[in-house]
Design a protein that fits this description.
Elements lengths: L1 E7 L2 H9 L4 E9 L10 H5 L6 E8 L6 H8 L10 E2 L2 E2 L5 E5 L2 H15 L9 E4 L3 E3 L7 H4 L9 H9 L8
Parallel strand pairs: 6-7
Antiparallel strand pairs: 1-3, 1-6, 2-3, 2-8, 4-5
Helix pairs in contact: 1-6, 3-4
C-alpha cells in the first residue's frame, strides 16, 4: 500500500472523487502543509485562511491495482489547474490545489505528470508539488461527507464521479 495527499479545493468532493477509483482502499479528509506552530487545527481555524493549511485528502491505494501516475493524471481532471486558491465557488488559500508526496520516488513520478500537464497550457499551472510537512485529519463530520449527505454541497459535478468510477488503469484518460 502507498499513501499520497491531494488538495483539490473543498475536500468533500475531492475525497468522493478518489473513492470512486478502483484500487483506492482508503481516503481521509484533513488539513496539510500549514503552520507548524498550530498542530491539529480545527476546521474553524483553517476556514479563516490564517493557518496556511489546505483542505487535503489522504489517499491510500494498492499499487497492484492502481499507479500513482494514474491517480495524479485523474486528479488533474477533477481540478482547474490554472486557478490559484479557488476551485468552483470556493475561494481562499485553504482551497488551493496541490499534491503532497512522502518520498523522492513519488516526487519523481508526480513531476513527470506535472510536466505532461503543463504542456496543455500556455499559462503556468497553479498546483503545488511539495513534500508533505504535516497532516491532521478533519473531524468525523467531514469524513465521507458526500456518502453521508448525497445531496450535500460539492463543487464537482456528479457526472465526474461516474466518470472516475469508469476509469481503469492502463486506459487513456480523456
Amino acid at each position: 500500500m502507498q499513501v499520497i495527499y491531494f488538495a483539490g479545493g473543498c475536500f468533500w468532493g475531492t475525497e468522493h472523487f478518489f473513492q470512486q477509483i478502483q484500487g483506492v482502499v482508503r481516503t481521509q479528509t484533513g488539513f496539510a502543509n500549514g503552520r507548524e506552530d498550530l498542530p491539529e487545527p480545527t476546521y474553524e481555524q483553517v476556514y479563516t485562511d490564517s493557518t496556511g493549511y489546505a483542505e487535503t485528502v489522504l489517499v491510500e491505494f494498492d499499487e497492484a491495482e492502481v499507479s500513482l501516475d494514474f491517480l495524479v493524471r485523474l486528479f488533474f481532471r477533477a481540478i482547474d489547474p490554472l486557478s490559484l486558491n479557488k476551485q468552483g465557488e470556493d475561494e481562499g488559500t485553504r482551497y488551493r490545489t496541490g499534491v503532497y508526496y512522502v518520498s523522492q520516488a513519488q516526487k519523481t513520478v508526480i513531476e513527470a505528470v506535472f510536466a505532461q500537464e503543463q504542456k496543455k497550457y500556455k499559462e503556468p499551472i497553479q498546483v503545488e508539488l511539495l513534500l508533505l510537512k504535516n497532516y491532521y485529519p478533519a473531524d468525523e463530520y467531514h469524513q465521507n461527507y458526500l456518502v453521508k449527505h448525497p445531496d450535500g454541497y460539492c463543487h464537482l459535478p456528479i457526472a465526474l464521479f461516474r466518470w472516475a468510477k469508469e476509469q481503469k488503469m492502463g486506459t487513456e484518460i480523456k
